Every structure is written in structure tokens, then in C-alpha cells.
Amino acid sequence: MINLELPKHLQDLQTLLRQFSNDGLRPLSRKYDDLEPKELPEELGPLSELLAAGRKQRSANNSAADNTDAESPAVRNGTNLGTVVGAAELCWGDPALFLAMPAIGLGNAAVEAVATPEQKQQWGELYAAMAITEPGCGSDSAAIRTTATLDGDEWVINGEKIFVTDGYRCKQVVVWASLDTELGKAAIKSFLVPKGTPGMTVTRVEHKLGMRASDTAQIVFDNCRVPRANLLGDPEIAKTAEARKKAFGGVMQTFDNTRPAVAAQGIGTARAALDITEALLRERGVELAYNREYAQLSALENDLYDLETEYEGARLLVLKAAWMADNRLPNSKNASMCKAKAGRMVNTVTLKCVEICGQLGYSKTELLEKLARDSKIIDIYEGTQQIQQLIVARQVLGKSSSELK
């Protein structure tokens, strides 16, 4: 059974990363939000290496201990739970700088979810972006038109991808492409394409509302050739309808791991906004007192308590989805639930904090206006609010994608 209190090793991780965020990320927040750099911020290299080394050591320790809770040996508190805890704490520091770190590459999760053990060993450490979205094809991943055709011992990839997070700086890109567009989602596979491969061109880097320290790129593939072994997972196209459904489900497992992690970005960003707001209010003599009755509370206090409630509900949903993944429990519905809740929550919390703090919230004196801008994309990428609600509805009602659109 899930324990809602984090185990000690994750509490220690929280403390360590909070200091890392406060001392290493917060001082850089405003600088790189203003600069909107295309290249990796120079200070992030050493910070990211330190983070990656710590994560590698913790992963080794977890494996040695079989990722189990000492008090409940049947319960695993492993990589997924550690990932969401870490993501939340680093986004408390700065969500855009967190997203820009090489160790965070979104495509890394796809390799972990789909690649064979031999592929993982061959590629080792990654800084992989994820290229799914196309012009005219946003949240419907099954409708992608980028193709991959086998020619001898190479795959030839043709198509265009947009809104690729860290697509300019990354070392590799995980590209979703179809082996046969007539077969729909059953023929979709993912391919690892190293940066600099002939035929792969970054054609544009976006200027954005938020997450400005992290680049977002458009990439065109024009007869881009990669080795046959760069297809992640099983290269065969399933023959039966049931097998095809399972095959695409395997590809979509990437999101079962990444959606809680993206939701955790919302948790950390919202916590940062609440902490800044409450600190500013304390300076002006407003202290939150949870022991007062409802009728004794001011409108301002009521607003803050509502925000704290929304935050806590989202936080617990994220922890549950990650815990389920660690314990080998199907978590697709829970991953979408936590992503939907956290995405909506972080937008609400950050904008309300800007409103509560008035001039200080709207100006660049504090980070609140930046956090509000950064928060918007958390409700959009890795599947929009509407798509998450649709996925949850299908699971609750027992409907297929063709039955409930």
C-alpha cells in the first residue's frame, strides 16, 4: 500500500536539491530569461554534470537495495518517485533552467521505455530531445506523417517536426515516424537520430512566452539516414488489430513515465510561487494561521488556503502515479490525471499569486511574473489538458479511442 510520507532517502534528496536550486538556479533565473539563449547557458554545464553524477549514484544505490522500502519490503520507491521529487525541487529553483539541463532530455525517457538492453548499453549517457509534434498534428500522436523507410541497413526518415524542446542544443533526437501511414498508429516507431546526421536540419528556434532558457526548435528531415539498429524496440509491424493496439500502447508507455515528471514541474513551479507570495505577505504582517475558523479568515487568506489545497491535491496525484510505475502497476489513467490536475493547478496558482502581490507580482522585481509565464506550457506539452481528460474518460468508461473522441 502507498505511504503518503516520502521515505527518508527522498526527503534527504529534497533537502539537497532545494539547496542546489536556491544557490545554483535561482541566481541565474532572470539573466537567462532575458537573454533567451540558443546555446546552453555556460553555468548549467557543471551544474548538470553534478546533478547527473548524483542521480547515477542514487540509481546505483537504489538498484543495490532492490528499490524497496525498508519498512515495507514489498514496496518499491525507485526511479520514478525519485524523478518526480527531484523535478519538483529543481523547478522550485527555475523550471526553464531545469528543462535546459542536458541530464533532463525528454527523449531519454523514450529510450528507457522502449529501447532494448543492448541499445541502452550501446548509447550510454544521452541528451536526447523528443520530436513528435508536426504541423497539423498536435495532440493526436497517431496522426503523424513523418515516414521512415528501410533501405538496406538504413532507415530513411522524411518529415517535419515542430516544438522540439532542446532540439537545437541536444546531442540526439528521438523521432516518431511511421513505417506505413496507411496503417495508422500501429506502424509508428521511434528512432534515435544523432545531432549532425546528414539530412537533419534545425530550421528555426522559437521565441516564446515562457521557458525562455530552454530552446524550442523546428527540425526538418530530408532523406535523413540512420542505421537500422537506431529503431527503438521491436521493428515489426503487428499483424492483428489487437496486436497493433498493444504495439502502439507500448510506444505510448513513454508518456506513462514522462507525464508524472512533467506534472512534477507544475508542482515545483507552483510551490515556488506560493513560497514567494507568502514571504512577501509576511514582510507586510500577513501570517497564515491554519487554526482559525472560516469566518475569521480574510478574503486574502481564503484565496491562499484554496491555492494550497489545489497544490496538495496535485502533489499527491503525482506521487501516486510515480509510485505505481515503480511498483509495476498500470498507471496510464493516473499519469493523465496527475498531468491534467497539475497543469491546471500551476496556471491557477501562479496567476493568482501575481494578482495577490499586485505591482510586485507583475513587475520583474520578483520572479512571480516569470513563473506565471513559464507555467503555461506545463498545461500544454506532453498532452494538453483536453487530451488528458479524454484519456481519463476513456479509461473510466472503458471506451476505445475510436469509440470516444
Structural write-up:
The protein folds into three domains: 8-109, Butyryl-Coa Dehydrogenase, subunit A, domain 1, CATH 1.10.540; 113-238, Butyryl-CoA Dehydrogenase, subunit A, domain 2, CATH 2.40.110.10; 242-397, Butyryl-CoA Dehydrogenase, subunit A, domain 3, CATH 1.20.140. 51% of the residues lie in helices and 13% in strands. The protein has 13 helices and seven strands. It has helices at residues 8-25, 29-35, 44-64, 79-93, 95-100, 106-114, 117-123, 241-283, 299-326, 332-356, 358-362, 368-378, 385-397; strands at residues 128-131, 147-151, 154-165, 172-178, 188-194, 200-205, 216-227. The longest helix has 43 residues, at 241-283. The mean pLDDT is 88.
Annotation keywords:
405 residues, alpha+beta, Butyryl-Coa Dehydrogenase, subunit A, domain 1, Butyryl-CoA Dehydrogenase, subunit A, domain 2, Butyryl-CoA Dehydrogenase, subunit A, domain 3, 3 domains, 4-stranded antiparallel β-sheet, 3-stranded mixed β-sheet
Topology:
Elements: H1 8-25, H2 29-35, H3 44-64, H4 79-93, H5 95-100, H6 106-114, H7 117-123, E1 128-131, E2 147-151, E3 154-165, E4 172-178, E5 188-194, E6 200-205, E7 216-227, H8 241-283, H9 299-326, H10 332-356, H11 358-362, H12 368-378, H13 385-397
Parallel strand pairs: 1-4
Antiparallel strand pairs: 2-3, 3-7, 4-5, 6-7
Helix pairs in contact: 1-4, 4-8, 4-9, 6-8, 8-9, 8-10, 8-12, 9-10, 10-12, 10-13
